[in-house]
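Table 4 source record.
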Amino acid sequence: MATGLPTILKVNLVTPRGVVAHTDADSVQAPGELGEFELLPGHVPMLAALKPGVLTIGSKAKVRYAVSTGYLRVDPSGAVEILIEQAVSAKDVDAEVAKRDLVSAEAEIAKWGDKPQDGDYVNLRTRAGWAKARLDATAPIAH
């Protein structure tokens, strides 16, 4: 019995530098500002803000990406547009560079103490989040 619901998600992952991934998938797991969530075919239309973390496309042949801040939109046809500031495939992450970036950003954050948190502080938090996202993307996938 046909329900008319999409049976796949048409995923388009884009940064200001261009398309990172354009593929059909059976699921998408994303790091939302309000918590991690999963999309399946037939998901209701939505718009969600994303925070730095790991984006996983597919449930069987999982492809993982480290992503920074951005937005994810699902339309009624099953198209998933992910507009993100930075994204890199987990297999292309240099874990040593990401570790150094995280340590450096966290050291700078620690210097702030009780000072008012301005734009520089927010930029440091973003830099630390991006470094942690890259490290998390290289971690083994739990089954």
